[in-house]
UniProtKB/TrEMBL annotation:
Gene3D superfamilies recorded: Immunoglobulins, Transglutaminase-like
Top-level taxon in the UniProt lineage: Eukaryota
UniProt name for this protein: Transglutaminase N-terminal domain-containing protein
Similarity-based family: Belongs to the transglutaminase superfamily. Transglutaminase family.
Span of domain Transglutaminase N-terminal: 11-122
UniProt GO MF annotations: protein-glutamine gamma-glutamyltransferase activity
Amino acid sequence: MTASDGFKVLSADLQLDANKSAHNTGAYMSRELIVRRGQPVRLVLNFNTSVRVEDRLQFTAGLITTNASTPLLEFNFYDSRSPAVNSWGAQRVETGRNSVTLNVFTPSNAIIGRYILSIHTSEGQSNLASIVLLFNPWAKGDVVYLSDQAERQEYVLSEVGLIYMGTPSYPQYTFWNFGQFQDNILNISLSLLDSTQSFQRNATEDVRKRNNPIHVCRVLSSIGMLIW
């Protein structure tokens, strides 16, 4: 059964600090919800009326690209006591008088990028949050998974490090400030993905491949080669 007539969301608590800590994204300066795929996201929704156990909540996660006003791709799902494994889904953790605490699930091979999460009620479709979904080196089901915590710290979380140049016989290195957590860097990175030749040729096909880190690396590398 879907939500009853007159049923609408008054506010959404994105649990920003808790989610960013759980998803190892707390270093990002943005106050946008930045999370990693294949790992639950906790949300608290407050409604104008009581929520019944039998009320099914319907959601849509719409992937938007730079300067787009409508989603390029959409993924629809309901809350469920037993969400499908490795799929978009939601599960209630707690039901209050006029509130619901949810875990929202994403596949470990989900397309990375910015999503608009919305809910469907008798009042129509309402946007709840803008969510940026990233690859997840902490999730065993993700192809970028790293089992070594020291490697995750060095390759993912460290803002400074070494880059190597030269040849295999005569390698040279220099210190480098990656600055990946600085303000607006994530937006710039997503904009670069939307400026590649692959995206310009066929936006939908390109975006569907962004679940694959190899594709993402290749299209970003192609920008560097064009500049060079």
